[in-house]
Amino acid sequence: xxxxxxxxxxxxxxxxxxxxxxxxxxxxxxxxxxxxxxxxxxxxxxxxxxxxxxxxxxxxxxxxxxxxxxxxxxxxxxxxxxxxxxxxxxxxxxxxxxxxxxxxxxxxxxxxxxxxxxxxxxxxxxxxxxxxxxxxxxxxxxxxxxxxxxxxxxxxxxxxxxxxxxxxxxxxxxxxxxxxxxxxxxxxxxxxxxxxxxxxxxxxxxxxxxxxxxxxxxxxxxxxxxxxxxxxxxxxxxxxxxxxxxxxxxxxxxxxxxxxxxxxxxxxxxxxxxxxxxxxxxxxxxxxxxxxxxxxxxxxxxxxxxxxxxxxxxxxxxxxxxxxxxxxxxxxxxxxxxxxxxxxxxxxxxxxxxxxxxxxxxxxxxxxxxxxxxxxxxxxxxxxxxxxxxxxxxxxxxxxxxxxxxxxx
Length: 409
Description:
The protein is of the alpha/beta class. The chain has helices at 21-29, 71-83, 102-113, 132-142, 157-167, 206-217, 230-237, 251-257, 267-275, 278-284, 312-325, 360-372, 380-387, 391-399; strands at 10-15, 47-53, 57-63, 90-96, 118-123, 146-148, 188-192, 221-225, 243-246, 264-266, 296-301, 330-335, 349-352, 377-379.
């Protein structure tokens, strides 16, 4: 499966071969974006297609191989199909000709174990409509209602769009605010954005752009500065911002430059609360102090990028943690949504990037194996703030005024 690089809702199409999965995709898209054939097994590896469903909005549809594929190659295709469950917000299970088997039951079990909502669609109803007996079987086996559909005559098309809209989790397509609850109308927010070897040529990184847009959407004012300009700017203008947000790599410099009565955090920590498992990050970050000689730490980057000589995940964070703990620690870095090189239980700590290029569900699914095993998880920005001695200040804007324990601090 190709790496998740879209924050739009992901809808997976599943089912046995020749049940009309690709026809359903073409029908939803209003164009031929998937190969349709009478020959079973036309779809091979999962394919992601980005488009807009009329009446719903932009989505990523994931076309998968038949779950009943066979042989060595077929088993590999099935394996890749099941891997897509880690990135899916909603599953459409396609059946036809009143046929139900262990393949459907197995998929439903996997949907539930991944906490994925699903819709069961009886396709090809123009050829063979679902019988009352089959509807009862589905209701009994899946504890849900069967949806009758035909990609040929588009029966119940509008109802299907409505069902997708009401079934897909709201957080998958509603865009929450990065910092709207931290600022008020007319507030000034300083964004500290170093331009170094890791900065993309001619543009800002996505979290910085998202922060600027969020500030504007909340009718506030964004001032963007390089770290070496902050002191002179504040002295010259006498401006007192309501909030300062910094790139995590210059946290120490920002901490020294921004007066301590002004809230300060980082882009990465904003993303941690916006998209990550913030409560588990709060619990897991202080566990950095408990790392021992021989422990192994996993760093998860959710996108693939050119690796600079002083890369944040591969070089800087390991160097800072090793220096802070004084321990001999092993580090693994995994980019995108690649398979982990070791069992999750081999790790004593997991550090997740901000996840700006993937969906909230994809990020949560990435963290769940560690959380289920009781392995502490944290975020790039929170880990950096912790080892640099400014963790209390960095998380204060998000926890002041609510009940929390000193474990967080």
